[in-house]
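Lecture notes, unit on protein representations.

Consider one protein chain, 132 amino acids long.
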Amino acid sequence: MSGWRTHRAAQIPALCDGVEVRLAGRVRGIEGRFELVDGSGACPVVVHPASQPAWRADDLVRVIGTVRAGALDVREVVVVARPTRPVAVDPEHARLAHPALRDALSGVARARAALRAYFASQDFLEVETGPF
């Protein structure tokens, strides 16, 4: 968990009402409803008219809200980034979102982390070469 984020999207439906949470993820719009999607899954989001103009489907956002009936009742939204083209029709996004590829990339990241940890334990110093 990052220092700012308190929960993952998949945890929201299991939390008790009234719990304050901080999440980050992509907004997904489905038939007039919104979900917040992160690496763990998705959770339904209650959108209030005052906060709706601040975000739209496909935005990357940070939200603060309260759990109500298994959904996230959003109090504060910060749009971190907006895509330059619709995510749903972006073939690169669709390829990277595939679960098998995500698992493979996670394995590569774990292997790199293990290598870095090993060399750090042996007092090696990681440096980047190239133009500065």
